[in-house]
Amino acid sequence: MDLREALLTIIPDAERVTSGESALDQHGRDLSYHIPRRPDVVVFPVTTDEVSRILAFAHERRVPVVPFGVGTSLEGHVIPERGGISLDMTRMNQVLEVRPKDFLVRVQPGITRTQLNKHLTPHGLHFPLDPGADATIGGMAATNASGTTAVRYGVMRDQVVDLEVVLADGSIVRTGSMARKSSAGYNLTGLFIGSEGTLGVITELTLKVYGIPEHIVAARAEFPDIHAACQAAYGIIGSGIPVARVELVDEHTVAAVNRFRGTHYTETPTLFLEFQGTKAAVEADVALAQEICREEGAVAFRFETDSAARHELWEARHDAALAIAATAPGKRMKVTDVCVPLSDMPEAIRRARETIDRYGVYGAILGHVGDGNYHVEFMVDPDDPDEVAVAERINDEIVRFALERGGTCTGEHGVGTGKMRYVAEERASVLPLMRAVKRAFDPRDILNPGKVFVLE
Amino acid sequence: MDLREALLTIIPDAERVTSGESALDQHGRDLSYHIPRRPDVVVFPVTTDEVSRILAFAHERRVPVVPFGVGTSLEGHVIPERGGISLDMTRMNQVLEVRPKDFLVRVQPGITRTQLNKHLTPHGLHFPLDPGADATIGGMAATNASGTTAVRYGVMRDQVVDLEVVLADGSIVRTGSMARKSSAGYNLTGLFIGSEGTLGVITELTLKVYGIPEHIVAARAEFPDIHAACQAAYGIIGSGIPVARVELVDEHTVAAVNRFRGTHYTETPTLFLEFQGTKAAVEADVALAQEICREEGAVAFRFETDSAARHELWEARHDAALAIAATAPGKRMKVTDVCVPLSDMPEAIRRARETIDRYGVYGAILGHVGDGNYHVEFMVDPDDPDEVAVAERINDEIVRFALERGGTCTGEHGVGTGKMRYVAEERASVLPLMRAVKRAFDPRDILNPGKVFVLE
């Protein structure tokens, strides 16, 4: 009996256990330049029990299983390097329970963040994490995603109080509780988060949610140079202003966005800022932030007070990647994701721009400046070995600088296959521990094999 | 060669490798009612290399090693249940590097939080976590401590970006980087934090630090009942006010504090509040918080604006435990530490008071109401089996309610030996994974053996 036929005995629904060409194609790639590789079969479970039975089967037969959300990962995480089953979680996308009085929500992993927020709005709540893509919550947990609001709300790992996880052998575990904090034993919740599907398949998450802010103000602060923009950002953070977003874009990136969206933002290093809270507090925060920006040499501080202009600003920020993509149809995206100590960020960004200019590459630079995490986004033709080699050299220079300064090769995108060699270097001393954990959790190496680190 | 003589070959300093009576006594107990048990020898390492050599030796000889800070733990964590070496880390108490521009500090584990803050003040920085006791930073990391400011700043695990850890066999690893966030492989930093010395000995920590707030206001909001106080707290949190502290004390606890400290706080359920930030934002936050408290039925809202009155308020809060202790000289402290979903807190606290009243026990109830974590503190004579049995029954009722409501048996104190049986229940499905991790990290079970869970 072939794999699909065998799986049909577990889920007797041909539409949910498919080897159709388009399904295999869709589940063989992510958003990036990484080389696609199709799974043998795509399965769409709808219950935890189905996931459990599929994993028990895969464990027995030693078939690789790769969890799949909406495929917005950027480092090849969801590409089934060794074939097997792509486990598409998007039909497990229910909000199971909104607990407004507990500021918690219990969801299935296949729900996307915008779907989730639609459910939360009537309760006066929101889930603030925003990695740009409309990723699934399960995928965001798998990579410990974060994005523009991490400076205020933290990363994905900070939001999750409980997980239901199906282990490699099909057993079902629950890692946490409905308590907002706990010291009850080893932090397995935090271990599964960021493990990129290599330790278990997340089938349920309980997340912290937040009251929708009474008042939101967005602003652009324009600077003569990157250094001044960074200094202003650190001044704002150091002052204790609970800034919700503080994003750095360089002048070339603003230019790309203007071309792509027809906006008229001044083409100079700019901080995109957002303040959230009560009206009076926000007004006070904005006034102080404006003063700090002026002191650091800001040439302009422009408000986007109404929600349309604010929406436009963050769309523009999110679209920087698309603006770059639009310049090179047919090519695929390459995005660096280093995170450096805050004080190294101006130099890191200056060098990153110098590097891509030197290689004659057209790219955007976007910085989560409150975290020291920035992205260089540019386009690569995966079929052109020279272009791929240049992309790797650019990435290598950027990562090298980050590691020299005590940073990390990935602030939020995760490792996948794309950053394995850097993780091997950056986390060299703990690789044996990671391998020991993997062997303990997944002794037959069926869960997203070949990702994060080399097991042997 | 006996144990001490053997250790003296590694650290040839009789003063730092001691079997003196007072040292053995001091390292055989914590702050709580748990039965003391002396180690065979106390070692005071001063370098990571010494820790490494001691562990390599202990690993070879299968000698238990229990890391020790200042002994403020409350669940027997530091009591050497199987004898062996108590590894006193307090001479490794240096600030290794303050990086003000990165909002980071690198410290040795034996520094206490007040010592650390003395070093940070000249840089305009502070480390806000405040578990009450002046614990060591290493001890706070080992138990994932938090305290009154967790509602704003998060728990210990949220503060640590990098650890140096000596493993059971003496090897030295580094788990993180100087980046404020990272998705580079499994979250071993978060796994070591809260592992209570059972997976490795922390020898260095890199922590996030924060700008000293420009303005701080403390206040007391007095309510007719616990429920109204809780509702006000959730209203404040839901409004988006970034409240720095929101502590609930019941009327009996206020009375105990008044007797102990000679204060004249109104003896009614009260929220102790603190607001931090820029002056204008704090003023706005306070005004809104006051309005919310009034709406929820607050009978008074009293400010402690000057730093002396504010200090007095938090001293009073911290001293609630001492106030109870003062009523029973010679007895030892028992403290429950459950954390429940926020909406269950009023009922949890009402029942907890009903429980201790029913058993005729005099105790304080203190709630980190922003987290759903509350403590019942009362005194026990460890030599009186009846009294110990009553203490266990009280604890059992309180924990039972928390677990029924989806909470946790420990919000911040950790497991030690005192909560092992509850963790076995609460985390039943993941106990096999915890055991697998322990075996992988410490195959000879020398690191704080007999804690957190039963290994076999």
UniProtKB/TrEMBL annotation, chains A, B:
Q: Where is the FAD-binding PCMH-type domain?
A: 35-212
Q: Which domain of life is it from?
A: Bacteria
Q: Which UniProt keywords apply?
A: FAD, Flavoprotein, Oxidoreductase, Transit peptide
Record's SUPFAM superfamilies?
A: FAD-binding/transporter-associated domain-like, FAD-linked oxidases, C-terminal domain
The cofactors named for this UniProt entry are: FAD
Q: Does the keyword Plastid apply?
A: no
Q: In the Enzyme Commission scheme, what number(s) does this protein have?
A: 1.1.2.4
- Single Gene Ontology BP annotation: lactate catabolic process
Against Pfam families, the record matches this protein to:
FAD-oxidase_C (PF02913), FAD_binding_4 (PF01565)
- GO molecular function annotation: D-lactate dehydrogenase (cytochrome) activity; D-lactate dehydrogenase (NAD+) activity; FAD binding
What residue stretch is flagged as signal peptide?
A: none
Q: Which InterPro entries match?
A: FAD-bd_oxidored_4_C (IPR004113), FAD-bd_PCMH (IPR016166), FAD-bd_PCMH-like_sf (IPR036318), FAD-bd_PCMH_sub2 (IPR016169), FAD-linked_Oxase-like_C (IPR016164), Oxid_FAD_bind_N (IPR006094), Vanillyl_alc_oxidase_C-sub2 (IPR016171)
Report which residue ranges the record marks as coiled coil.
none
Enzyme class, one word?
oxidoreductase
| Family stated for the protein in its record | Belongs to the FAD-binding oxidoreductase/transferase type 4 family.
Q: What is this protein called?
A: D-lactate dehydrogenase (cytochrome)
Q: What is the lineage of its organism?
A: Bacteria, Bacillati, Bacillota, Bacilli, Bacillales
